[in-house]
Amino acid sequence: MTSCDAQGRRVLQLVALPRLPPALFTLGQLDVLKLELMADGARLLVLTGLRRVAGLAELRLQGCRLERLPSALLALAGLRSLDLRHNHLRTLEELLALQHLRRLRSLRLAQNRVLALPASVGVLRGLVLLDLSHNQLQSLPPALFTLRRLRRLYLDANLLETLPAEVGALALLAELDLSGNRLERLPPELFSSCVELRCLNVAHNSLCSLPPGVSGLSRLTRLDLRGNSLEELPLEVGCCAGLRGGGLLAEGWLLHSLPQAVRDFLLQPRPRSCSSTEESDTFPAFSTSQWCFLSAAESQI
């Protein structure tokens, strides 16, 4: 059954399948292929047919119980967005092969079982968005911080104990989520060099203090500090105009430890120029047709 989504793109909805039906690849040029299977659905067994739709711009293989990156991806030279959330990936050694996907801008690998990020991640130089949340990462390779085009980096719900100082090399970073890790400190370079940051989430870590320099983040509109071991908030937060109107999230007693003048400043309405805007990880080059394989539960809605 086909329909149109909110953006006017054609959507094809099919129930979860163990393999891609051959007839699918006779339906003409595909631009967006979305495959979502229930967590307890059939394992996706065959993906070789993807080689016949080399013009794909967006591919979503969610909940397919994939254990490795499919080799068929290497034929999708025009791919801009790859979504492999909710799978069983443990290793990402095949990332090196993805260097041939020179147009890849968005890579979502959240909610897998990834134990380590290989140095080969550095070949994905065009990435603007990288989502590695809800995995089992304990450390980050220096190569990650050579991805100088990154604007959105999600590392929440991992096992990270340190954030390397090299994070300062990500000068274009606008969103960084480190919540739900084991961080005890943040490198000063995060505040001194990542001056484009708009949203920083470090909630639910083990931070005892913040490094100086938060006042340098003039574009910051959201700072989440909840669930840490902070004893006080730096007075510098009062210099971040974008945090006014509820942009600073912390325990009430911490907020009340600030001088009254700073609290009053932060309670003022946020200036219009500091309003945050949602960034999309889709791209205007995508065509108007979208193909979706949905779970049985979704197809009945």
From TrEMBL:
This is Uncharacterized protein. Gene3D superfamilies: Ribonuclease Inhibitor (3.80.10.10). InterPro entries: Leu-rich_rpt (IPR001611), Leu-rich_rpt_typical-subtyp (IPR003591), LRR-SigEffector_domain (IPR050715), LRR_dom_sf (IPR032675). Keywords: Leucine-rich repeat, Repeat. SMART domains: LRR_BAC (SM00364), LRR_TYP (SM00369). Pfam families: LRR_8.
